[in-house]
Every structure is written in structure tokens, then in C-alpha cells.
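New here. Your pick:
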Amino acid sequence: MVKIRGRGRMMRVVPVLGALVGVLLAAGCGALPDMSALDDECTRGDKRFAEKLDALTVLEIRPGGATLLADGAGHGCGDSTGYPYASRWYHTGISAEEIADFYRDALPAAGWKLRHADPIHAQQRVFRGARLCFTRPVDGVETYLSVGFPGALDAGPEDVLGAGPADVDLHVMADPEDGHVNNC
């Protein structure tokens, strides 16, 4: 016990923190939570699945001349969904229309099924980007691949796809727990 003087009288205080540390040390590290899982609300299983998604060769399929942007590759769990994901962001020298045509051919050839396709044309107004969406099972889990054009939006209130060179974002996402993601 530690004596602490307060308001003119002696008070006895049990050092709770010291007792708690002693209990945790006696129990071993297993009593401590996995802080990495708490950081981004991603379970260990989700992290492993995100790594599996990140290794998919489909993320390397890109039009000729497309280059990966600095910091254009990532994986983990989505901030808003918590679902495992992996992504690549490429810069190209071609238009969004040409990129869409490329992926409409290349992804089905790689085993991905087109589920949804926004119209892609230079003066199209877009809400949250125009995109193509494909699906395919990965280890028995329905996985969604979105092909988007985040760098192709012209500045201004119209938000239309431009006619010039576009960036393309490939984003794969899945929910290994129940297999259902409404990403398309």
C-alpha cells in the first residue's frame, strides 16, 4: 500500500496499476489483445486473405505502357467495410474508353466474369467514378474486381470523364466470412 496525503488527512491507495501489470505478467502474453488487429479492425484471417488477394496475378494485368504509380499498390482491410482488399493504380497513355476495351477482353480471358459495366465515354458524367466490375471465386470466396478511372475526372462541378490519358485503379475485395460483398 502507498500512502498519499490529500486534503489534510492520510489516504491509503492500492496501486491498481502495479497489481494489473503483475496479473498480466503472470498470465503471459496471451492475455494481451492482438493490437495489430485492433489498429485497423482486420482479423488475422482477413489479413491473410488480403495478402492472398495482393498476390493475384490479375492485379498485374494492364495495358501496354501502363506504369504503377508511386505508392500505387496496397492491401489490407477497407476503412469503411473492414473487408480484405488489394489494389493497384496505374497511369496510362490511353483514354478511359481504350482502357475499358482492354479489360473487357483481358479479364474474361483470365477467368473473371463481367458483372456490371458503367458506360465509358469521354463526356460521361460520373458519380464516384465510372467502372467495370468482374467476379470470380478465390479459394471458394466470391471476389469482386473493380476497374475504375480515378485519375480521369476533369476538375469542376461536371465530373465528366476526360478524353485524354487516364489512370486506372484495379481493386479486388472479398468477404471470406460470409462471401457476400456488395462492391459492384
Remarks:
- The two ends are 61 Å apart (CA to CA).
- Confidence is low (pLDDT under 50) at residues 1-40.
- The CA atoms of residues 17 and 23 lie 10 Å apart.
- The helical segments are 16-27, 35-40, 44-54, 96-109.
